[in-house]
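Cross-posting from the modeling subforum.

Setting up a comparison between two proteins and wanted a second pair of eyes on the formatting. Protein 1 (sequence, then structure tokens):
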Amino acid sequence: MNPISAAGAPLAGVRVADLSRVLAGPYATMLLADLGAEVVKVESPRHGDDTRSWGPPWAGGESAYYLAVNRGKRSLAVDLKDPDGLAAVRELCARSDIVVQNFRPGVVDRLGLDHAAVRERNPAVVYCSISGFGPDHRPPDRPGFDLIVQAESGLMAVTGEPAGPPVKVGVAITDVLTGLNAAVAVLGALVRARATGRGEHVTVSLIGSALSGLVNVAQSALVTGEEPRRYGNTHASIVPYQAFGTADADIVIAAGNDALYQRLCAALDRPDLAADPRFAANPGRVAHRAELIGALSATLRERGAAEWLDRLRRAGVPAGRVRGVLDAVRAADEAGDDVTLSLPHPTAGPLDLVRAGFRPAAEPHGGTGEAAPPHGSPGPLPPPLLGQHSTAILAELGLSEQEIAAMVERGAVHQHETR
């Protein structure tokens, strides 16, 4: 199989068999692709990844959900119930450095794609199993969806207004955290595998990722033995650290220490609040939260957001505007953060995508929004159409034209026909 990753990228020459679907697994493998790995996405020939149908909205017939987490991959649409199709995927795993799967418990064992079976042919493989509740959870077959895990992990309980009900985070955050954890764990195992020639079986769960992602909130609960409260857009331990209304829009202010609080008071022309002994140190501000926030809120409503943000910036006080998502993406690009890239998609045309939160050292920054491949390489691939690369991948795995044609004919393989 010929690597298609960019020369000079951190994971150039690394092959990934992506047997995952929906969000956590595909997000992890997309991050590996962003680092230069060659990723083959294995999908059902009939419907593909579940997220292909999760629309609207759509772009060129592809759902926005699917497009968000599948760039940089090639699609092999093959029926795992077909003996030849299953044999091809087993061969793919045998030739890959990394295998990522999130099948329901027991499925990979029945298919002969479990860690033990793959390792028998590929001792150096880094094999990553992603699940909702972990390999030792009881009952073992419990399905894991982000909404369920947000509820079960306590994340919903600490999200929302103090007097309101528990609220889920607006994005499937436990899936995203799991994808990040999976990518980190895989990379660590890959380093060791390259040094020793022995692979590892990495397990990552949504519940473990969610609980570890509670960080200080979970630690506070363990220290106190009490359930944390909901604080809405405020902070349990820092005041002022929250959203405020102004004359025309909402802003947030993060005065994370006593010096920043003094600067805030100066920017707001409130020397009385700076001198008040109740508010001199953060523990006092937490104790007298209601009085201080009331005074700050009244002052901030006297002027517009732009004027306050300019004053706070010049005073060195961390602050920002509460933005919508589209406004946020555009503002970040305009500010030079270069958060989007544009790739030519075969049906959607020029497709804007949000970059990963990291930048490899070799990747140039320029704020152009264009994918800038290093060393004259073709650059990242757009999210693939279902079965876009099926026949090419099967040929790389050693199947003959006749064998591939027969699989396509009987529906065991789907090859997207370019028009």
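Protein 2 (same layout):
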Amino acid sequence: MVATFKTIGLLRFSVLTPTYYSERFKTLEQTAVHLFAPERMELRFRLFEALCLPSLARQSDPDFTALVLTAQALPEPWLSRLETLLAPLPNIELRQVGSDKHYPLLRAAYQSVDLGDATHRIMFRLDDDDAVDRDFIARTKRLAAGLVALRDQNAPLIIACNRGFYVDTTQSETEVFDACERAPLAAGTTLVAPVDYPNNPYRYVHRKLPQYYDCYSDISVPAYIRSIHGDNKSNPTQMGLTRKMKPRQIAKALKAHFHLTFDDLKAL
């Protein structure tokens, strides 16, 4: 049997749930106050509009579905702003979800996408403050097809984008630097599996995915931009090589793979 694929991405934009941020806030009401604070929402929109959304809209292969999950409780004017941003992009869908447990919400979202006659799903994850390179979808499809053909078609596998850039806005001067990680990041990490496989790439902490799946580490090109700012939920730690490229090399790679410049990132 020749495998056929449906590519589905999912990112969370201020999803309100009792099992996410539970380590910081004791009640759903406290979590909502944090999530929907005007200063935080302005920051999340600035990063989403400058990094995440353009990286999906500029893909060289637009044949994918990306779901943007947000809370049913997302207040105005933020909801209208999000709807306006996504309206021109037919393959990027806004989904409002209730305040159920975190992982079941994500699982239901992945499972809601029509698969047609596909035998396998290519499921990627992306945070709303990060970006993937413009050939991410096309390259991931090629890798998925090749890896599935080489293996037991029923065995799930992970494709991790382990080479890219960080932009750190927390210092007195914004720093942009390269990194080549030795463990999967959240940005662009992909689970390839038969359509009836119940899990998705949010099932386990991304750094621990090689403990549960065969994992292909792709360092062929810079594939992600990870932002460090005042509202990172997790501590952005680099696990691998960093700061090996010169500024002119970084500038060239940003333009070629992301259509971005140093000035674009420093404006964050």
